[in-house]
Write a structure and sequence with these properties.
It is built from six helices and no strands. By secondary structure, the protein is mainly alpha-helical.
């Protein structure tokens, strides 16, 4: 799989190609490249539109839904993607720590946005879909993987509880005690 950030196209064409790649059923040889793909899609299809003047347009609604579908498909097929290190400024943070707070933040923003009449239901549905996606990520974290290595004793719901504790600590250090935004 080629690096999703090195696509020659720009704008909508590059996003469409990334979405198509994410929706494909191919199994990534390198989970890190899919982690990067998920991050790029999430940033461009979910986070950036939150500050758009035409938020949420029908195109944005479709891109959010496709991105959530990709997240669900890829993490269900390859749960280890959630443990891959992110490639953003805060390199080395596991994807689950990076994505859960952003899913919740996006849901909050969609719920509190002023919607035009014809998109009001789509906006509320997106809020529910974003929260469901956060729940699904937590559910995947509960799975005991056959190929797990290390000395961790955590399994099942205890594993998710420990992961959520790490998310809480990450959020406290990243967002509460600093001026950084999501």
């Amino acid at each position: 799989m080629t690096d999703p950030l090195s696509l020659p196209q720009s704008g909508e064409e590059a996003l469409k190609q990334l979405i198509d790649r994410g929706l494909s059923q191919e199994s990534p040889d390198d989970p890190t490249s899919y982690c990067k793909l998920l991050q790029v899609l999430f940033e461009h299809c979910i986070l950036k539109p939150l500050v758009s003047t035409n938020f949420p347009s029908a195109t944005i609604v479709e891109q959010v839904r496709l991105t959530l579908t990709i997240l669900q498909r890829q993490t269900t097929a390859r749960p280890e993607l959630l443990s891959c290190s992110t490639t953003s400024v805060e390199s080395g943070v596991p994807l689950y720590k990076w994505i859960i707070p952003r899913l919740i933040y996006a849901a909050y923003r969609y719920e509190n946005a002023t919607y035009e009449d014809d998109l009001a239901m789509d906006g509320m549905d997106l809020c529910d879909e974003l929260l469901a996606a956060a729940s699904e990520v937590i559910s995947v974290l509960c799975q005991d993987l056959d190929n797990e290595t290390g000395t961790s004793y955590a399994r099942g719901s205890m594993k998710a509880t420990l992961a959520l504790r790490k998310v809480k600590e990450y959020c406290e250090g990243k967002f509460i005690h600093s001026d950084e935004s999501i």
